[in-house]
């Protein structure tokens, strides 16, 4: 089986190319002579054994900045999908990067699929770090920008990390079936590291608070995280479906993360983490908060059908084959309705000629003479 990644009009597509799943190959045709004095021959050959190249495999999707696609291989009816959101960025304070961006969440589950189904994949990017007077940009797929104190100043929050998700039957936020939330961006409050909230998982965590203002809230299954408040100066944006809230300026608040719902932006506090999600139909679902560092990732793995080989005609290896042509047929099945077969012939040639024995020359003058003539043939009826 060959694997191939194909880029078409900016969309990275992963699909499996296979001529046959399962598949089987037979040996070449065999020709042997009969065993001396017999009408048969014992024939040994390598018994064909089928394989299933669509059996067990996996594909890893890393951040690319655009939608990627996965086509379910032939013979596969169940996949395991692991989505990991991206980490939030660090805050900037007086020439240094401080704090730890919230780690992205992890959501894993099993899904029943059909061969040929297409899954659309969005892998989140880590939030960018703050720079002098500029809040860090939010990561791809929902991460929000961090706030800054004053333009050109020495305090700026980190951007929120993007979510990683799977979409089916479309590519909008409403088509998402599995989501792992990103982590919130870090705050530069008073030069102390106030870390971003971790992503879900099921719900995102709130960012760390600050005495000058408040943190962004973590997202839930039903709503985005609340925005932080810097009394009399600015209010950070709350998270919304799929998108984190921006950290407010003037403050070095962290940006909220992307997720099923986005985390809230911070107002001097750190940004909140995004929530995760699994649609009905997933089984064995596992939600983990605060798992992934750096960019997000998606892993799709599967176990296809087995390769069950049977002989449907002919004789097995090591059997006694008669003179003539015997056709051996072998078949492999995966238990999912897919099959392949092959055949080869075993030809046993009778290379012994019949024999006849006559008596020696005899002379008689008159009368009846009975000659004793004998013959033998190792394989009567063969020519």
Give your account of this protein's structure.
By secondary structure, the chain is mostly beta strands. The chain folds into 2 domains: 2-53 and 305-349, Immunoglobulins (Immunoglobulin-like, Sandwich), CATH 2.60.40.10; 56-304, no CATH class. The protein is built from no helices and 25 strands. It has strands at residues 2-8, 11-17, 30-33, 40-42, 56-62, 68-71, 78-84, 91-93, 96-98, 104-112, 118-122, 155-156, 164-168, 176-180, 229-230, 234-235, 277-278, 283-292, 297-303, 308-313, 320-322, 324-333, 339-349, 355-357, 374-376. The strands form 7 sheets. The protein has a 7-stranded mixed β-sheet with strand order 1-2-6-11-13-14-17, with no helix packed on it. Strands 5-19-7-10-18 form a 5-stranded antiparallel β-sheet, with no helix packed on it. A 4-stranded mixed β-sheet has the order 3-23-22-20, with no helix packed on it. Strand 1 and strand 2 form a beta hairpin. The protein is rod-shaped and about 150 Å long. The model is unreliable at 1-19 (pLDDT under 50).
């Amino acid at each position: 089986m060959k694997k191939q990644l194909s880029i078409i009009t900016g969309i990275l597509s992963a699909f499996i190319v296979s001529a046959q799943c399962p598949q089987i190959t037979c040996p070449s045709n065999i020709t042997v002579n009969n065993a001396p004095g017999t009408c048969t021959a014992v024939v040994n050959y390598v018994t064909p054994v089928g394989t299933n190249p669509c059996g067990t495999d996996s594909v890893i999707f890393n951040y690319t900045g655009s939608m990627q696609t996965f086509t379910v291989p032939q013979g596969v009816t169940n996949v395991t999908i692991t989505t990991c959101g991206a980490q939030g960025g660090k805050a900037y304070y007086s020439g240094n990067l401080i704090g730890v961006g919230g780690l992205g969440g992890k959501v894993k589950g099993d899904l029943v699929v059909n061969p040929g189904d297409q899954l659309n994949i969005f892998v989140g990017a880590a939030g960018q770090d703050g720079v002098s007077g500029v809040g860090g940009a939010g990561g791809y797929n929902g991460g929000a920008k961090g706030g800054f104190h004053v333009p050109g100043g020495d305090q700026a929050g980190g951007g929120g990390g993007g979510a990683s998700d799977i979409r089916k039957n479309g590519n909008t936020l409403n088509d998402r079936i599995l989501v792992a939330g990103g982590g919130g961006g870090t705050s530069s409050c008073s030069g102390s590291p106030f870390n971003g909230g971790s992503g879900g998982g099921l719900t995102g965590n709130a960012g760390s608070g600050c005495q000058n203002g408040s943190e962004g809230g973590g997202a839930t299954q039903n709503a985005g995280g609340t925005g932080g408040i810097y009394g009399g100066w600015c209010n950070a944006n709350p998270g919304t479906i799929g998108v984190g809230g921006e950290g407010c300026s003037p403050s070095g608040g962290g940006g909220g993360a992307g997720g099923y719902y986005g985390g809230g932006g911070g107002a001097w506090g750190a940004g909140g983490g995004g929530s995760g999600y699994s649609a009905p139909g997933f089984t064995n679902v596992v939600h983990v908060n605060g798992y992934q560092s750096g960019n997000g990732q998606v892993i799709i793995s599967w176990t296809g059908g087995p390769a069950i080989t049977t002989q449907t005609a002919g004789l097995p290896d090591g059997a006694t084959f008669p003179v003539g042509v015997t056709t051996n047929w072998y078949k492999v099945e995966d238990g999912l309705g897919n099959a392949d077969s092959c055949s080869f012939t075993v030809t046993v040639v009778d290379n012994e000629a019949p024999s006849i024995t006559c008596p020696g020359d005899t002379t008689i003058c008159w009368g009846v003479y009975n000659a004793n003539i004998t013959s033998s043939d190792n394989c009567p009826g063969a020519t």
